[in-house]
Amino acid sequence: MDPAAAVAAIAANPANFSELVAQLQDADNERRKAAEAVFEALKEQPDLCVTCLVQTLRTCASVEARLFCGVMIRKVIYYRSDQEAKSPVLWDKCTSHVQAVTKQALLEALVQEPDRNVASKVCAAVSDLGNLIYDKAGWPELMPALLGMLSSNQQIQISNGLSVLSDVAPFLAEHLKSQLQDIVNMLVTFLNCGNKDVTVAAAAASTSFIEAYEDSQARQLLSPLVQPMLAVLGQLLSSGDEDEARDVLEMFIVLAESCARFLRPHLIPLVEAMMRVAGANNLDANTRQLAVEFLVTLCEAREQSPGMMRKVPNLARSLFELVMGFLLDIEDDPGWHSANDDSNEDAGSGELYDPGQEYLDRLALSLGGKAVSDAAAPLLGSWISDAAWQKRAAVFICLAQIAEGCSKIMSSASYLEQLSRMCVVGLGDSDPHVRWAACQALGQMCTDLGPELQAKHHATILPALMRVMEDFNSPRVQAHACAAIVNFSEGVETDVLPPYLDTLILKLLNLLQHGAKLVQEGALTALASVADSSQDLFNKYYDTVMPLLMHILTTANAKEHRLMRAKALECISLVGMAVGKDKFRTDARSVLGYMQSVQAAGMDPDDPLSSYMLQAGARLCKCLGSEFIEYLPLVLPSLLQSASADPDVQVVDEDEVNADDLPDDMEAISMGDKCLMYRSSILEEKATAVNMLSCYAEELKEGFWQYVGPVLKLVLNGVEGQSPLIKFYLNEEIRRSAAALLPSLLRCCIAAAEGGIQGATPAATAEFLRAAWTPLLEALRKEPEGDIQAVQLDSIAEIVEMVDKSLLAPGSIDAAFKVFDIVLEKADKRRAERASRRSTEDFDAEEAEAIDAENEMEEELFDQVATAVGAFLKKFGDDVLLLVESLLMTRYGAMLTDKSRGAEERRIAICLVDDLLENSAAGMAKHFNNVLPILLEATQADHADLRQCAVYGLGVMAAKAPVEAFRPHAATVAELMASIIRHPDAKNEDNDMATDNAVAALGRVLAHHAEALGPDGGAAAATLWVQSLPLKADAVEATAMHEQLVQMCEAQDPRIVPHAAKVASVFAEVLGGGTTYVAGPVGLRMAQLLHRLQGAVPAEVISSVLSTLKPKQQASYQAYMAGTVPE
């Protein structure tokens, strides 16, 4: 049918609309799509559309038609024809007459609609319309109509009236404040009336009103609603109405999330009631779960009421034991023992098992490690030797779940010893479920408590895991032992794995050749992780491992082996990165040829090889470097396609979502009465692709030039219908990678321009910067996550360091500093909010510790901003002094002068001051007198990093301050530096950086202010300085000081001449370090001096140093002495 003609027919005879409504619900796709086209056209005539819907709602005999119209009225009043957020909605385009008729008709339907389902849609339509118009045109008839319904003697009208009242409470709150006491009295009456529908509706309305008012006076008036609501819950459970009881439990959860402090006066009866519900074995699992959700949500409400739940007597122990009981909701299932795939991993688990794991994790994070570990100790100690395997397994599942939240306590030496011993016992348990759980605990604890756990207890953990890998009767446990090896290997210290490599790799190869499919997949991942951790040590195994991996890759073509093939590719790429391109080059080209043939043949949409190829390609690129450029046309098209993929984001009414009808990978997030849905698999692939783009750009530089334009467009503009990657708020990883991409892409532009690549010019670089600068600043300003802001700030700093200063106009710089100020202002407000929690009645030591941890995260943000500001100072110097001073005064000043601030905050502020002193001559002159006392005081700090920044700043002053300003203080500074250098603990691991900086500061005083150190120019200080060389902890200061020593020797400085033997040994040691501790050309000058010194000092002085050098260091030394800079 022609939509325009059909609309005209409806206009001529509105009765035709009923036929359209029937067609819109037709099961036949073609007829329904044709009807939908007509309805879309009808919405372009607002009066006609709304009138037809309302008339059909009020007059049609068909319940289905009225139900449809009730739903569609809600949708069309908000409809925008051009999708612009600022354009008028359809309701605003209706004439005042149609609006008046519609409002009246809806209020009549609210009272008169006989069908319960239709009536609920009318309630929702009235609520949505009220929300839309109340603050604009108003709806004076609404409240009288509701009050009329609430005063009737018909229960259905009362329920419907309460339903609408619940929905409109948020936007009518201010209008109803004067009547609040009357409303509370009315709601209490309804809560106590005994009618199920009315009491549940009254509970919903009570919840809405409690949420709507935040001031204490209103909250006090609303407090009497809580106990009747709790009584309603009890009545529903007693009468077996669990569906309605779950509705009320969800209302309490809403209050726990948003109004935890409001519930404090009722806390004890609430906790007791919810504990009874959660522990009632006769109730449905979902009901019990919701009761625990309420309690855990209250535990998590730290910002509103810190420490409140820890004050409830015995709560931590009782709640922990109750949740541990959920882990017993599991039985042995034959499917679990199968290891063909991971689909049966949850076989045997009941409805409470997974929630129990989640709640343990959340409790540990919210109640704190001490409360939960104290509650856990007696129960776990009892259960680990229980006859029931369910309890023994629960011990290890619990450890896996609480390790993160209890990491501070569990990381102690005694705890690690106990935990490792328990896990080894679990790995040897007679029941495979327990052994599996012990693998789970070990793997998770290696992540949460590592690398200390691996470093201290590898001798017991690894052999026990390898024994489990031999158990071919329990393939699922074998596979999970491989997964634990992966966790063990990630982040492990380099000296831990080597003694075990021969045995471990042999066992993994055995599993690859003889294990079940799930075991083979796990062995591949474990082998990849071990190779990644071992790096060049894996060369020894390459010729044995790689042929087997290539065989799996090229022959595992059956559909059931697709994941194994994908994991083989992952393993090959990680092994290749470990051994390097010289060893891997030939096989790498074979792998790339294989990827090319697979891509040409095409893959099924659900083939995991597709996403694994994205990552493998980036690893191969990193391994081969510029040799990979010829393969870019192979990998980039699919990578850009994945980065552009649409995750099918939808916002729908919650009541329209049917979980059974959704694809397996469709995630749904509830947002009030709406639901945000998206395809998680597509989103994950998109995130991976964006991250891989960053790898390619960073590695290939000018070789990536031709792709800079398309990638930049994705980052800044996105594709049609999607947000730009840099503002893709649905996924943090995408925003993080997009921010990191920008400096990598800019580096490509600059390298391509320098290399003379066609189209790559300084003008193109300038155009890139103009396009990217403002969106990057805007993304930083709006970013809600501090860790992503850190990446964005790092990108800004990198960009400033890279570009010519002429490319950043004053306006662009001003804009950056304005955003920095906004970011820090928000951080200051968050800090103030956290500080206000210290004054609450439930505040305790655990909460103080949690706040300190949050403040530390905020300090990192201040540190990142200071680093970005430092980049501007290094590039623009005095030109940005006023901007820096403004930021210092408003955001960093208190960190410098407030003695109550922590050492880390003072360090951050002093680092910024150091940058100002070093890069702004005007700033040095202006602030010298104010800053010097601050730095002198900070040199005495116990905090090593603070001390380091202070002595570095004094060194900068010595070198760059006006001579007449610093000279009066030179002797004092020299003596202070000497005292730091001579301290007995000066060279321990915590202090070595600060000590190196003190040596450097002393060296600068010697170089620039010898006259102030006495007639001999500070000979004693010079002796101490030479004896403190070489420097190795701080490579930057080492390079500077070793060059200064060369200069002083070349000048035959009399303060240095007496120390020829020491100088010779320093030179020999430094030259052995290659270019780590000395710049190449300076190293050549150093070698010339050493040639001269060889005849002036005893031979053993130099030979004793050379005897300590490793072969590579010997080669570096010999290269310098032969007149060449080592590679």
TrEMBL record:
Entry-linked InterPro entries: ARM-like, ARM-type_fold, Importin_beta, Importin_rep_4, Importin_rep_6, TPR_IPO4/5
Keyword field contains Zinc-finger: no
Compartments, as annotated in UniProt: Cytoplasm; Nucleus
UniProt domain IPO4/5-like TPR repeats: residue ranges: 115-272
Main location: cytoplasm
Keyword tags: Coiled coil, Cytoplasm, Nucleus, Protein transport, Repeat, Transport
Superkingdom, taxonomy of origin: Eukaryota
Pfam families in the cross-refs: HEAT_EZ, Importin_rep_4, Importin_rep_6, TPR_IPO5
Coiled coil regions in record: 17-44
Keyword Transport among record annotations: yes
Listed name of the protein: IPO4/5-like TPR repeats domain-containing protein
